[in-house]
Structures are given as structure tokens and as C-alpha cells.
Design goal:
Distance between the termini: 25 Å
CATH class of the largest domain: Alpha Beta
Bound molecules: 1-deoxynojirimycin
Radius of gyration: 23 Å
Strand order of the largest sheet: 11-10-9-5-2-1-13-12
Oligomer: single chain
Helix content: 25-40%
Largest sheet: 8 strands, parallel
CATH topology of the largest domain: TIM Barrel
Number of strands: 20
Number of domains: 3
CATH superfamily of the largest domain: Glycosidases
Structural class: alpha/beta
Length: 542
């Protein structure tokens, strides 16, 4: 496979609203990001995935766009954005934009026009259907609770919205829509962005009348066409958000011969702590063996035929240290273990803001303290269905999106140094202990562990390109694997539990070995049978 610059990259996701507030209005902004670029440079990342900064009424915090070629007032101006691109590029950091084109805001001029009349030029930019027997055209549900159809009094038709009713779905069957999207992509390409993260891109091939949303029949045709007419002319990183991807589907997207995307986010591991066939809120404990099976499957299936993205976190997911680590007595050890496990794999790693500090989930006492539309809609829906408040809060504490969205904790001053105004969402109370300033000053911090992982990757072709093989596969407590390239070997061994665990792999031939990184101070020699301390994680080179 041809080598690409983004094979070697580590990406850092910024959720702009919560990153850093430079003008003290309580909302993060673009100038705030510019002020913190040196922090990111120190961490060593070379790409930023920038959450949506476009004009938006913020029904879904920027994922409802009303102008794709302008900047949200709270975040700054286009001049600020140009500065950010320049300042980031001068530090060797590329900016990947969030491209949200499955839907727009209902305040986008296209939708405002579309609503005016059935024969308006923009009507067909969206998905409209007549009522059937006075009701919704079909049973399709919104991912934010309730029906995916919203009645429009004026025209007597329904429009489709997979997300909130303020996020009407674009009709990709319409070539004018597709051309308009290419124009937007080209506009940003010409500004010198490093690529695009494509929001719920697997929904664009939807067939509403058959209730098909993900993986529709024309999805790959549309992507090939978009690649050819826009970003494919540049050397960019493109990553699709694809909840419905299997390894076979991921190869269609990310095999370079297909000329679609660089890689996709697949979510198979993310669903392992929910009850099969139910919603993300219906919890079940994670079994490590399942996680190992899923990661190993993805590592092997894409070998030579596609490219993985590697992530634990993003702005929609709970904090990994609270989820699958231990955010109490082993917060530091378990956060480092999870980082080591992920960053030793093959693919492009993504770090979500605050993950490098071991930021944790948040527990607000009242539902009124939450902001996220998905959480609030689910709360109402489940109360109406008879769930108890306590039961619902338990799910929100475990899975709510605001866990990831509390402001970044910069120091131990008020509001964690995020703002001196009133933050749009309360800061997690643990900011006095968990914050960037303390982490940068402490050479044993989670931050420096991440920094070393990024550095090790940059300097190791074996980690970037080596083949993956699982070790001690049946072990229910330990996740271990070996990466190998031209005889150079890297071994990663992680205890996923808060107890002593034993690693045992007789088939591994051990020559000279050296510890590249560990989350305990004293060094343990690599052996075929090893006892591991709680959450111990070691990376060796053989
Ligand atoms: C996925 C985004 O990550 C999420 O935050 C958003 O709510 C939906 N897509 C809708 O755009």
C-alpha cells in the first residue's frame, strides 16, 4: 500500500465550545484554540479535528449548520479561522474540518426557501412526503427520540429528520445537492485545510420509503463522485463517521483503490457495553474477551486493504477512564493502560480533548444542568414510558454526551481556567486535581504518557506499518499483542483489571528486549509468563 502522511499522524479532536474561552463569554472560541496551539505541539499531535465552527443556531451544538462558509459568532470570524489555519500550519499542525452534510439546520437558507412552496427550487433539496392516512409516511424513528418525520402545516407534507427536527435531512438523490456539497468542500480545500471528518456519512444513501438510513445502495457511488469532484484533487485526510461499518464495508471506504476516504470511524467496540438490539442507554458490563475479539478482527481484516482509525473517545462518548478504566484509585494507571493499548495498534490514533489528562465523566445532580439534546429528549421519552428518574440518571452518568463536553480543565483556578465568565456547561468539580497545568508539570502524568506514545509512534515504522498478532488470546484479564515489521518487534501487554493478573504466551520467542514505556516505575523484564499489577501496561521492543 502506498505510504501516506496521515498513516503517521496522531489526531487531536477539539470540541470548540468547550476547549478554551479567550473572550470570557463562557463559550470556547477560535482565538482560544490559537492560544493553546503550543500545548498541542508539546503533546506532539500533528492534526486537529475541529468540531463544527460554522454558523449555526446550535440546536445540536454546531451539527446543525445554517451557513457552511461562515463562522459562528460565538466562535469568532473568518479572519480568526484563517489565522488559526496559518498558526497551526506554521507549527506543522493540519486542521481537519467537520463536514456535516447529511442534514442542514432548518435555518439554512436552502430550507427556508424549501418551506416556501412545493415548487420552490430548493424544495427537492430535502426529503418531503405526503401523509399516509393522516399520519407520518412510515415508522422511521429519529436517533434523538420520536418520529423522523415532522409535519409542515403550510404545505401539508412531512419532512424527514434523522436527528432533531431542526436538522432536516438533505436529499442526496438530487444532483444539485451533491454539487452544492462539492462546492462547500472545495471552498475549504482552497483555504488549505488538512482534510475532513464526515459526520454520519453512511446515512447519505438513505432510501426513506424503504426505511433504509445507513449503508444505502448509492452511498459508495456518492462518495466516489464527491472524491472526484472535490477533496480527491488534494492530498488530505478524510475520515467518515460510519456507525454501520463492518470490516467488509470499511474496506470499500478505505481501500485506496476505491478512491473514497482515507479511513472510517467504526463503532463496533463502542457498543460492547450495551444490551444487544437495545439502545446505548441500556447498559451491560464490558467483557474484555469481546473487546479483544473486535479489535483483533478489525486489525487483521483491514491489513493491506484499508486503514483503521483508533479511538476510545469523542464528543459523543463517555470518558474512557470512567467507562473501561477506574476513575478512582487507579485513574492514572488505568488511563495510561488504555492509552498504551490503543496507541500500539495499527491505524491513525485520535485523542479527544482532555483524554490526555484522564478527564472523567461528570455527575450533575439535576437533569436541568444538562445541555445535550439527545440526553434531554431521551430523559423526557423514558419518563413518559415509565422509567424511574434514578434509572435514567444512571444511564446518563454512564453514557450521556455531556460527559465529554464539560469544559477542558486547564488549571486549578475557578472554572478550571476555561473561562472567567459563566461556562455554558458546568466544569467538572475535579478540576483542582485534574488539569493541564498540573499534568504538564508532572513528568509522570497521563499527559506525558500520551506525549511519549505519540513520540514512539512517530519514530517507529513497526508501530505504523507492522503486522498485528494477538497474544494469549483466551486470557480474560489481559490484552496483549505483538506488532512486527522486517524482524523488528513491539510487544504490548495490558492488564485490564484492578487485580493482579497473569500473562502467559508460550509461543513467543524472547530475545533481547527493552521497555519502551510502562505505567509503573520499576521495570519488568519480558517473559513468557508474567505477573501484572493492577492496570499495568508495558510496551517492549524486541
Ligand atoms: C454525529 C455527531 O458526532 C453528533 O454530535 C451529532 O449529534 C450527529 N452526528 C448529528 O449531526
Amino acid at each position: 500500500m502506498e505510504k501516506k502522511w496521515w498513516h503517521k499522524s496522531v489526531v487531536y479532536e477539539i470540541y470548540p465550545r468547550s476547549f478554551y474561552d479567550s473572550n470570557n463569554d463562557g463559550i470556547g472560541d477560535i482565538n482560544g484554540i490559537i492560544e493553546k496551539l503550543d500545548y498541542l505541539k508539546l503533546l506532539g499531535i500533528d492534526v486537529i479535528w475541529l468540531g463544527p465552527v460554522y454558523k449555526s443556531p446550535n440546536d445540536d451544538n454546531g451539527y446543525d449548520i445554517s451557513d457552511y462558509c461562515d463562522i459562528m459568532d460565538e466562535f469568532g470570524t473568518m479572519e480568526d479561522m484563517d489565522n488559526l489555519l496559518r498558526e497551526a500550519n506554521s507549527r506543522g499542525i493540519k486542521i481537519v474540518m467537520d463536514l456535516v452534510v447529511n442534514h442542514t439546520s432548518d435555518e439554512h437558507p436552502w430550507f427556508i426557501e424549501a418551506k416556501k412552496s412545493k415548487d420552490n427550487k430548493y424544495r427537492d433539496y430535502y426529503v418531503w412526503r405526503d401523509p399516509i392516512d393522516g399520519k407520518e409516511p412510515n415508522e422511521m424513528g429519529s436517533l434523538f427520540s420520536g418520529s423522523a418525520w415532522q409535519y409542515d402545516e403550510a404545505s401539508g407534507q412531512y419532512y424527514m429528520h434523522i436527528f432533531s427536527k431542526k436538522q432536516p435531512d438533505l436529499n442526496w438523490e438530487n444532483i444539485e445537492v451533491r454539487k452544492a456539497v462539492w462546492d462547500i468542500v472545495n471552498f475549504w480545500c482552497e483555504k488549505g485545510v488538512g482534510g475532513f471528518r464526515m459526520d454520519v456519512i453512511d446515512l447519505i444513501g438513505k432510501v426513506p420509503d424503504k426505511m433504509i438510513t445507513g449503508n444505502g445502495p448509492k452511498l459508495h457511488e456518492y462518495l466516489k463522485e464527491m472524491n472526484k469532484n472535490s477533496f480527491g484533487k488534494y492530498d488530505l485526510l478524510t475520515v467518515g463517521e460510519t456507525w454501520g461499518a463492518t470490516p467488509e464495508i470499511a474496506k470499500l471506504y478505505s481501500n485506496p483503490e476505491e478512491k473514497e476516504l482515507s479511513m472510517v470511524f467504526q463503532f463496533e467496540h463502542i457498543g460492547l457495553d450495551e444490551q444487544p438490539g437495545k439502545e446505548k442507554w441500556d447498559l451491560k458490563p464490558l467483557e474484555l474477551k469481546e473487546l479483544k475479539r473486535v479489535f483483533s478482527k478489525w486489525q487483521s481484516s483491514l491489513e493491506g486493504k484499508g486503514w483503521n482509525s483508533l479511538f476510545w473517545n469523542n464528543h459523543d462518548l463517555p470518558r474512557i477512564v470512567s467507562r473501561w478504566g477506574n476513575d478512582k484509585e487507579y485513574r492514572v494507571e488505568s488511563a495510561k493502560m488504555l492509552a498504551t493499548l490503543l496507541h500500539g495498534l495499527k491505524g491513525t490514533p485520535y485523542i479527544y480533548q482532555g483524554e490526555e489528562l484522564g478527564m472523567t465523566n461528570v455527575h450533575f445532580n439535576s437533569i436541568d444542568e444538562y445541555d445535550d439534546i439527545e440526553t434531554l429528549n431521551m430523559y423526557k421519552d423514558r419518563i413518559a414510558k415509565g422509567y424511574s428518574h434514578e434509572e435514567i440518571m444512571k444511564s446518563i452518568y454512564a453514557k450521556g454526551r455531556d460527559n465529554a463536553r464539560t469544559p477542558m480543565q486547564w488549571d486549578d483556578s475557578e472554572n478550571g481556567g476555561f473561562t472567567s465568565g459563566k461556562p455554558w456547561l458546568a466544569v467538572n468539580k475535579n478540576y483542582k486535581e485534574i488539569n493541564a497545568k498540573a499534568a504538564v508539570e508532572d513528568e509522570n502524568s497521563i499527559f506525558h504518557h500520551y506525549r511519549k506514545l505519540v513520540d514512539i509512534r512517530k519514530n517507529s515504522e513497526t508501530i505504523i506499518y507492522g503486522e498485528y498478532r494477538e497474544l494469549d488470546a483466551e486470557n480474560p484479564d489481559v490484552f496483549a499483542y505483538i506488532r512486527e515489521l522486517d524482524g523488528d518487534k513491539v510487544v504490548v501487554i495490558c492488564n485490564f483489571t484492578d487485580k493482579i493478573a497473569t500473562f502467559k504466551e508460550d509461543s513467543m520467542e524472547i530475545g533481547d528486549s527493552k521497555v519502551l514505556l510502562s505505567n509503573y516505575k520499576d521495570i519488568v523484564e519480558l517473559k513468557n509468563t508474567m505477573s501484572l499489577r493492577p492496570y499495568e501496561a508495558i510496551m517492549y521492543r524486541m
